[in-house]
Amino acid sequence: MRLKELVDKTGVSTETIQFYLREGVLPKPRKRGKALADYGEHYVELINTIKNLQNKHFLPLSVIKNIIKKLKRLSPEEEHYFQLQSEFFSPVGHLLFQKEVVGDEEFLAVTGLAREWLSIAEEWGIISAATKDGAKVFSADDIAIGKLMVEMDRIGMGPKDGFDPEVLRHYKDRLKEMISDLNLQFTEQLFGKATADEFAEIGFSAQNLMGFYFFFIFRKLAHEDTLKRIQEKFAAQGEK
Questions:
Q1: Is residue 92 part of a domain?
Q2: Shared domain check, 173 and 154
Q3: Which H or E element spans position 188?
């Protein structure tokens, strides 16, 4: 694509892209003559990654340059994980409260979720807005879940691919039961041993730790099970 098309697709100015090229943050494009450069589609992803690292992680270009170099050596699985981690696990986001959004229209615009799926997710209790001053207010968690639903559909985990999205509802219900059991144990152990403020502080810390535990144990077990199933499938094909 031409430079102008790259500008249109990324929303980054010509001057900024040329600056990235001079600083070595972006690789030099392929030349089609002395004054004509050809930018592949991967330049769009690279520029979006640079913007994300600058806007959400506040990293200097010198650090971003090294990250971009390392991305070239990642497998597709590792690169996808990096993109998700960069989007949903910003270190600054752990220190600051992320902005809520008000109303369905703003939520749909921010997440990219289709209106029908917002209604379904609300019906299933996966996304649940609070009501403040008569308006629907979606939390940062709701926003992240909406974005993840869009991402799942994009990579091939949507209804058009034969994936039943209602499993998300079942997983939510099962997880809710697990969390209820954990909280019951937690409250019984601490009740009467801590003040209300201490109880709340420990509770929120435990909540964050268990959230990370669920994330990493799911990722570990899913990775192991996926490799096992792939090996079994290809081994069965080899026997035929």
A1: no
A2: no
A3: helix 167-190
Q: What is the count of structural domains for the chain?
A: 3
Q: How far is CA 3 from CA 40, 68, 80, 171, in A?
A: 10, 20, 26, 45
Same domain? For 16 and 30 the reply is yes
Rounded CA separation 128/151 (Å)? 19
Confidence (pLDDT) at 197: 81
Bridge partners, 132 (sequence order): 135
pTM for this model (two decimals): 0.61
pLDDT digits (tens, 9 = 90+) for 48-67: 888 888 877 767 888 888 88
| Residue type at position 133 | D
Note down the domain range covering 60: 3-87
**Pairing state of beta strands 37-38 and 135-138?**
unpaired
Classify 4 in phi/psi space as left (phi over 0), alpha (psi -120 to 50) or beta: alpha
Say whether pLDDT at 107 is over 90.
yes
Phi/psi for 214 (5° steps) reads -60, -40
Q: Are 71 and 63 a contacting pair, CB within 8 Å?
A: no
172 close to 121: Cβ distance less than 8 angstroms: no
| Cα dihedral 202/207/211/214 (nearest 10) | 90
Question: What is the distance between the alpha carbons of residues 148 and 165, in angstroms, rounded to a whole number?
Answer: 12
